[in-house]
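User: Hey, my collaborator sent me this sequence without any context and asked if I could get a structure. I don't really work with proteins. Can you help?
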Amino acid sequence: MKIILTENKRDRLVLNWLNKEFGNLTKVVRRDKTFYIDKDRFPLFFYNQDGKNRVVYVSYYRFWTLFESIFGMNHQQIKNILKEWLEETYNLRGYTPAHWRVSNRFWLEETYNLK
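Assistant: No problem. I've predicted the 3D structure and written it out in structure-token form, which is a compact way to encode the shape of the chain:
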């Protein structure tokens, strides 16, 4: 039996999963950035304190790849669901999600002491 999800049901499923897995992140302010980190102190998203660009940079590897591979979502669908989640869960209204590829863990450790 094949289960077919409507876009609305898929989005509700994704939002519920996001809240269950990442709904209680810790906010850490370091220099000019605000990070939200998991229990292992790994940053999952961040934004610049100056608020000029109103972009929140979301981990590509923890979110984008998952939504692409499991739910078959495209870039715009992922942006829309992350925007809704960030607004509802972390009160980040007016921010636009963009993917952030954390390629240099050493940079985070040394610069922001996040791990």
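In plain terms: The longest strand covers residues 43-48. You can pass these tokens on to your collaborator as they are.
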